[in-house]
Amino acid sequence: MAIENKAPGKDISEEDLKTKFPLVAKKSADHSSCFSVAGVEFGGDLIPVMAGPNMVESEQLIVETAQAVKARGAHFLRGGAFKPLSFPYRSEKYTETREQGIAWLKTAKQETGIPIITEVMEERYIDLIADVADILQIGTRNMQNYPLLTAVAKTGKPIMLKRHYGASLRDWLGAAEYVLVEGNEKVILCERGVSVAHTHRSSSRFLLDLQVIPAAKEVTHLPVVSDPSHATFWRPWVEPMALASIAAGADAIMLEVHPDPENSAVDPLQAINFEAFKALMASMNKVAQAVDRRVK
């Protein structure tokens, strides 16, 4: 193992790299996975951007959003049809669109050609979602749902694994190993905020762990994504944290974008509108160029 630091992390030992997640671990200092998804490269000079609403609210909204984010440079449309909402109660606005939402995502993909990333919550819906999605997202609450990880891995589809807000780097990499051990090598890690005592706003539940980006890249060859929208839970902080993520070495950015953020059905405090997204794309590209990468 060509890792100079014999104790790579606070909770990661050299033995972990050899026996707990050898497939996830770097084999040398310059070992970095690079692969394409729907013609978009992860792990190279390009920093792909995934953008869209937290929830697929209607066919009109998701098609409009797909057109808008693609025109402004997004590489993937994100949107949740199956949502792990924090509480069991639903209303006409605060709900899930489930199978209908997946059908609307399919329409958006057909009409715009933009690739799709969306979440899988249950094994029974894997085939339905995999038929439409180019990347299958495993959400934070399912990070250690090992039967689900194994099942999605067997589809052969690229997997984006979101870090649980209470998980260590060791736990996160161990979960990723469950996908790689099934022979699925297209795994993307996503930092989406951690739970801490102080978050600077009463409405903000998490802090974006920028430090985990370089920490992860010291020990794993997998691409690392940052989701500043869910992490900050506050619209004005999304831009600075997106820019900081790129500077910290993030290999992709996930953003919540909605045509009418204040009236978003889910998490209206964090989404940005189309024009703000356009401006942010330009700013992110400038920061990316400063670190010899690009967003466009």
- Kindly report the average pLDDT value: 94
CATH architecture of the domain at 41-52 and 117-290: Alpha-Beta Barrel
Task: Find the CATH topology of the domain at 41-52 and 117-290.
Answer: TIM Barrel
- Report the principal-axis shape: globular
**CATH structural class of the domain at 41-52 and 117-290:** Alpha Beta
The low-confidence parts are: 1-5
Number of DSSP-assigned strands: 10
Largest sheet: 8 strands, parallel, barrel
The radius of gyration over CA amounts to 18 Å
CATH superfamily of the domain at 41-52 and 117-290: Aldolase class I
Helical stretch count? 10
Helix content: 25-40%
**Straight-line N-to-C gap:** 35 Å
Structural description of this entry:
This protein has 296 residues and is an alpha/beta fold. It has a domain at 41-52 and 117-290: TIM Barrel. It is 35% helix and 13% strand. The chain has 10 helices and 10 strands. Strands 3-4-5-6-7-8-9-10 form an 8-stranded parallel barrel, surrounded by 6 helices. It has a two-stranded antiparallel ribbon with strand order 1-2. Helix 7 (212-219) links the parallel strand 8 (187-191) and strand 9. The longest helix has 17 residues, at 274-290. It is globular, with a radius of gyration of 18 Å. It starts with 13 loop residues before the first helix and ends in a 6-residue tail after the last helix.
